[in-house]
């Protein structure tokens, strides 16, 4: 059964050591996402339109809001992965340059010796399951190496250009605001389309063009993020968290959380800690 060895939350976002033997459905994050193979069975990741086989030679790089999924690729047992969720604003502030929008230029990262060494250091800190003043610095250096490698040999997208390309259409902006206000309710795509002044097909097409994901995936992302916040920051039971997010039972909420995050919510709460 899939499970977590350690989850560490900090100003950078979150980092986790997972042992995964079950698929994770197509989902997205507002953070940038790096997935490194550590041990066990190999895994295959679908990142946008590209399939990436994660092993000791290759890692996966996922830009913010880019749809992706995960599955174990062979019978070598659970895949132990170092999984990083990096806030773009944190990376921007630490890089001290407006040219460093945290969007990757390629989905495959070659595991060079320096990157492998940083993976080893971060994995060791996570295995200690204690906060360390070294963690953020290690993570930034590894992320910078992966970022630079992903853009090597191709035109670079700067921060301002990336920012200007998003949320251009006021109808998409309105639908996002509505989803943020009501994601815990039973939100219907037809209602969002109507409130945005569009037909359902036109709204669906426009939203995906602007955001890179479907409205349904966006809603699921909001729910999963709120669930993680509630698990970390409140004493609410798993049942109450699921109920507050609109799920009819703990079982349905657990299925949703596991298929989107990778592990059950009770396991996440048990191993996670905040810096």
Parts with pLDDT < 50 across at least 5 consecutive residues: none
Counting DSSP E segments of at least 2 residues, the number of strands comes to: 11
At CATH's second level, what is the architecture of the largest domain?
Answer: Sandwich
Question: In whole angstroms, how far apart are the ends?
Answer: 27 Å
Helix content: 40-55%
What is the top-level CATH class of the largest domain?
Answer: Mainly Beta
Largest sheet: 7 strands, mixed
> How much beta, percentage-wise?
15-25%
Task: Report what the structure shows.
This protein is an alpha+beta fold and 275 residues long. The protein has two domains: 3-161, Jelly Rolls; 167-274, Orthogonal Bundle (Arc Repressor Mutant, subunit A). 45% of the residues lie in helices and 23% in strands. The protein contains eleven helices and eleven strands. It has helices spanning 88-95, 113-128, 135-151, 159-164, 170-182, 189-195, 200-211, 215-233, 238-244, 250-261, 265-271, and strands at residues 3-10, 13-20, 24-27, 32-40, 43-47, 50-54, 58-62, 68-72, 79-86, 108-110, 272-274. The strands form two sheets. The chain has a seven-stranded mixed β-sheet with strand order 10-7-4-9-2-1-11. Strands 3-8-5-6 form a four-stranded antiparallel β-sheet. Helix 9 (238-244) packs across helix 10 (250-261). The chain is globular.
Keywords summarizing the entry:
alpha+beta; Jelly Rolls; Arc Repressor Mutant, subunit A; 2 domains; seven-stranded mixed sheet; 11 strands; 45% helix; globular
Concise structural overview:
The protein has 275 residues and is α+β, with helices and mostly antiparallel strands. The protein has helices spanning 88-95, 113-128, 135-151, 159-164, 170-182, 189-195, 200-211, 215-233, 238-244, 250-261, 265-271; strands at 3-10, 13-20, 24-27, 32-40, 43-47, 50-54, 58-62, 68-72, 79-86, 108-110, 272-274. The protein folds into two domains: 3-161, Jelly Rolls (Sandwich), CATH 2.60.120; 167-274, Homeodomain-like (Arc Repressor Mutant, subunit A).
């Amino acid at each position: 059964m899939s499970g977590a060895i350690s989850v560490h939350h900090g100003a950078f976002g979150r980092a986790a050591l997972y042992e995964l033997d079950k698929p994770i459905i197509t989902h997205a994050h507002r953070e940038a996402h790096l997935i490194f193979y550590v041990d066990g069975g190999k895994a295959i990741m679908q990142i946008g339109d590209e399939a990436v086989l994660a092993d000791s030679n290759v890692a996966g790089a996922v830009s913010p809001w880019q749809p992706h999924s995960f599955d174990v690729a062979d019978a070598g047992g659970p895949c132990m992965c170092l999984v990083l969720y990096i806030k773009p604003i944190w990376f921007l502030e630490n890089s001290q340059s407006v040219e460093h929008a945290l969007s990757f230029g390629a989905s495959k990262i070659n595991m060079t010796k320096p990157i492998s060494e940083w993976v080893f250091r971060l994995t060791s800190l996570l295995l200690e399951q204690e906060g360390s003043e070294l963690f953020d610095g290690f993570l930034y250096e590894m992320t910078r190496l992966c970022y630079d490698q992903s853009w090597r040999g191709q035109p670079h997208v700067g921060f301002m250009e990336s920012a200007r390309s998003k949320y251009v259409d006021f109808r998409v902006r309105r639908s996002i605001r509505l989803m943020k206000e009501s994601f815990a309710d039973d939100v219907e795509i037809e209602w969002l389309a109507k409130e945005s002044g569009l037909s359902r097909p036109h709204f669906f097409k426009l939203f995906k063009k602007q955001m890179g994901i479907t409205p349904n995936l966006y809603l699921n992302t909001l729910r999963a993020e709120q669930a993680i916040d509630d698990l970390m920051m409140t004493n609410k039971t798993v049942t109450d968290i699921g109920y507050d997010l609109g799920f009819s039972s703990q079982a349905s909420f657990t299925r949703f959380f596991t298929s989107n995050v990778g592990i059950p919510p009770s396991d996440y709460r048990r191993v996670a800690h905040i810096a």
